[in-house]
Amino acid sequence: MSEDLTKREDRKINLSARKGEKKRIEDLLPTERRVVRAERVSVCEAEPYGWIARSESDPNLIYHLFCDPQTRRLVCTCADFAFRGDAVPGFECKHIVATLKFIARRYLAREYDPQRQLKRAA
To answer: Are 48 and 61 in contact (CB under 8 A)?
Structure first.
């Protein structure tokens, strides 16, 4: 009996994971939802330090992000991070996800040197 249930569950998973079929946002995990929403967040550098993330729903709403010197992790001023940041270890709001992508893209465009990596590996 349990084998039949397992086969049915496997079949459901296979049917729902067909190629070309898009997942609905309701079917995504909370972390995956934040990543999808982060695509609509615009990020720029802040003066004198950190980054500014603009809300996707209201461009007038801005959040300041900075690197905490003790933990070396990004901190955001949004309510989502304020309420979940301390309670959930490693929590990243959509603004942090967008900022990490922003930093990575800039690093790859300006500073990444594959030849330097090859020299270190040798």
So the answer is: no
The token duo for 69 is 């010197």
DSSP string, 10-34: HHHHHHHT-TTPPPPGGGS-HHHHH
Tell me the per-residue pLDDT of 31-70, one tens digit each, with 9 for 90 and over: 777 777 777 788 889 988 999 998 777 888 899 999 999 9
Q: How far is CA 51 from the centre of its chain?
A: 15
pTM for this entry: 0.64
| Nearest-10 crossing angle of helices 30-38, 94-110 | 50
The residue written with tokens 């900075």 in the block is 66
State the Cα–Cα distance between residues 94 and 18, nearest whole angstrom: 28
Residue 94 pLDDT more than 60?
yes
CB 95 within 8 A of CB 53: yes
The string of pLDDT tens digits covering residues 7-22 is 444 444 444 444 556 6
What is the three-class DSSP state of 47?
A: coil
Structure tokens that stand for 33 in this block: 């939802």
